[in-house]
Amino acid sequence: MTTNAKQHTPAPPDPRVAVVTGGSRGIGRAVSLRLAQDGLAVVVNYAREAASADETVAAITEAGGRAIAVRADVAEEKEIAALFDRAEEEFGGVDVVVNSAGRMTLSTIADLDLEALDAMHRTNIRGAFVVAREAARRLRAGGSFVGFSTSVVGAQFPTYGAYTASKGAVEAMILIMARELRGRDVTVNAVAPGPTATDLFLTGKTPEQIDTLAKTPPLERLGTPDDIAAVVAFLGSPAGHWVNGQVLRANGGLV
């Protein structure tokens, strides 16, 4: 028996959706590109550099992925709420939130500029909590939140006191947030990179300082943004969903 009825191919499921703060440059850009490569639609957040965000989106879309750029200050709750609104309007929901936006000022504690301290902590602490709060409210079942700390929390390098204090606050909230989301099927973790070859890390350091730091880990090199992006992608994937409430030190064995 023959039939003229057309065979309909089921429409592919909508992609999982990621929001990446600070997603236009450095590690955040590498994370955005990697998540898009893994099939997620990506909302690339930026605070100031629209051109860099547009370049990141263009790289994703030219490779066949889906992405948009959205400006928002991570420390401003209304702007972050609007960022998540845009993700939901454009792609239907949010499954992975990566808070890679950050600021670093290096100084001995004795010489610390308190205005620089306030500015850094506004982004690194208040911003981390604002993004985490919105993620806790919006992430769909099976989702993941990934924050960023630093391996200097363990290494305790001089001049990193204020920066490390701000990232220690991120580590302190990770397991608590994971426990608060009991029953939601949402994981909460942080990645703590070691020395990584980004503009944020390299600026202000001499070649000798960079070489010394590169040789410190047993693997004897600096990390790359792609090294860190791979760890983030694992934590945000179904394969990494049994990891919860943890801080992963991605540093080549530094500490």
UniProtKB/TrEMBL annotation:
Gene source species: Streptomyces ambofaciens (strain ATCC 23877 / 3486 / DSM 40053 / JCM 4204 / NBRC 12836 / NRRL B-2516)
GO molecular function (one): oxidoreductase activity, acting on CH-OH group of donors
Enzyme class: oxidoreductase
Protein's UniProt name: Putative oxidoreductase
Annotated SUPFAM superfamilies: NAD(P)-binding Rossmann-fold domains (SSF51735)
Pfam families to which the protein is assigned, alphabetical: adh_short_C2
InterPro entries: KR_dom (IPR057326), NAD(P)-bd_dom_sf (IPR036291), SDR_fam (IPR002347)
Keyword Repeat: no
Keyword Oxidoreductase carried by entry: yes
